[in-house]
Amino acid sequence: MKVVIVEDEEPAVIRLKKLISEVDDRIEVIACLESVSQAAEWFVVNSSPDLIFMDIRLADGLSFEIFELVKVEAPVIFTTAYNEYAMKAFKVNSVDYLLKPISRDDLGAALEKFRSLYQNSQSDLKGFQTKLNQLLAQFNQTYKSRFFVKVGQRYKSVSVDEVACFFVEEKSTFILDREEKMLAIDSSLDQLGKQLDPQRFFRVNRNFLVNLNFVSDVIIYSGSRLKVKLKNGHQPGDILVSREKVNAFKEWMDR
Known about the structure:
The chain has helices at about 10-25, 35-45, 65-70, 85-90, 105-115, 120-140, 190-195, 245-255, and strands at about 1-5, 30-35, 50-55, 55-60, 60, 75-80, 95-100, 145-150, 155-160, 165-170, 170-175, 180-185, 200-205, 210, 215-220, 225-230, 240. By secondary structure, it is an alpha/beta fold. The chain is elongated, with a radius of gyration of 21 Å.
């Protein structure tokens, strides 16, 4: 089996090649590509491999852009440190992914799934392409950039860049802006989670959705939780990362 690795971090490439060799030494890595542009050029002039390992974030953009530039016919296993929203998208569309740091067992399971689903099956490959196109459509969506909120007898346009966090208090949703002002909005946190860029905003618990750019400190807290401090110093109560979201939050912060 011939595979291509699309990854811009050399240590990650070295580790993945080593793991591939350990799991199945019959697999041949025929190319290691480090950018969207380099990958697009390679796929134009070379035959399609059997499988591609592809990181999502490359030096010159998202790897999804490769599929918009050229036709890629091989199945893809994404290697990623992406956040929980992306993970849900992959699961819904049945696209394999490996969460960094990649383990040997996870790699072996992903390869086994690839063999059982896609290898030597044109119909399965077409199904993969359909699912991949659905995934691309999700990531090409435009995220909300501002809110038009009522303040007294006036309306104010608030950019998401100005929002430190969104929070729920007494069943109402509020914006806390960089000036520490609380502004009521009609959207629920569930709705906001779908409207906002998951690269910038994270739902830490049922009551708080925080902006990465306003996180100043993260403190280890009781019960295997984390406590988030915002840069503006003022926040409406303790912002605690729920236990079940701690790992996803760490990945989100560590991109």
